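// run 5 | inverse folding | seed 20
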């Protein structure tokens, strides 16, 4: 699963005394971590999320579903920073807590499955990732309906897995379906639509279908710049994608300019 999906859920509980204070602290820290993540400030977001985990465990105990939310957030943050061992530990624990609390077929369980699948896919452990993505897709479709944005996320994840194995005929229809769902549910200018555009364009790039890829990359970049700002890490990703396309089509000077801009953005967030 993608790093822009980290969402802190508000905590509104009157549990008395020191527990209430800890719960309020957790809520504030979760909000802080979410805001920092959305700004692309992953290091500070991780610090806030770890403090939130401590507060949640104090207020609610280690096996509460809201503790799993914080574990999930930490897993995504660690993955974004390529801290894969830590990410796996957080996601595994979140999955265990959620399955115990909700049963095996809850959307929060599917979220954890997706995130573990993304981790394994990133490590090219395809055989471990695919059944997690398929199970997550089945849960999301059954519980939320076939046209829910969370279904699009599962479709994108599974498509990316097939893409990575050069199974393009299996990947492309999943990408198209995810893009259609997100456009209808979220609007054409939403950052998640840009994610789908980037994913589909990247698939075309690998297949050397450059005339199909270029307008999708351009549209994704325009959406992200408008929605996220000019210096967001996702903008850097789009710039890098477009630069790769331009290098393959002998537009070296244009590619260099995009790469330099992307590198500057990356340096801002280190």
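// decoded
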């Amino acid at each position: 699963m993608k790093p822009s999906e980290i969402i802190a859920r508000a905590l509104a509980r009157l549990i008395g005394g020191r527990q209430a204070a800890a719960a309020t602290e957790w809520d504030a820290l979760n909000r802080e971590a979410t805001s920092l993540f959305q700004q692309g400030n992953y290091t500070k977001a991780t610090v806030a999320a770890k403090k939130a985990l401590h507060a949640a465990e104090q207020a609610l105990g280690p096996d509460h579903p809201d503790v799993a939310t914080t574990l999930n957030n930490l897993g995504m943050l660690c993955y974004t920073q390529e801290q894969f061992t830590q990410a796996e530990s957080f996601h595994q624990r979140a999955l265990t807590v959620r399955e115990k609390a909700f049963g095996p077929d809850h959307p929060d369980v599917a979220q954890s499955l997706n995130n573990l699948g993304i981790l394994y896919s990133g490590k090219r452990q395809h055989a471990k990732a695919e059944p997690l993505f398929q199970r997550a897709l089945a849960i999301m479709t059954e519980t939320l309906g076939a046209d829910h944005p969370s279904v699009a996320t599962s479709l994108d994840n599974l498509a990316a897995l097939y893409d990575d194995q050069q199974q393009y005929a299996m990947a492309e229809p999943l990408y198209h379906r995810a893009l259609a769902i997100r456009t209808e549910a979220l609007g054409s200018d939403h950052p998640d639509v840009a994610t789908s555009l980037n994913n589909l364009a990247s698939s075309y790039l690998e297949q050397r279908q450059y005339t199909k890829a270029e307008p999708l990359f351009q549209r994704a970049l325009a959406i992200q710049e408008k929605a996220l700002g000019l210096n967001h890490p996702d903008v850097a990703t789009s710039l890098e994608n477009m630069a790769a396309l331009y290098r393959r089509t002998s537009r070296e000077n244009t590619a260099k300019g995009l790469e330099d801009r992307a590198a500057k953005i990356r340096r801002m967030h280190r």
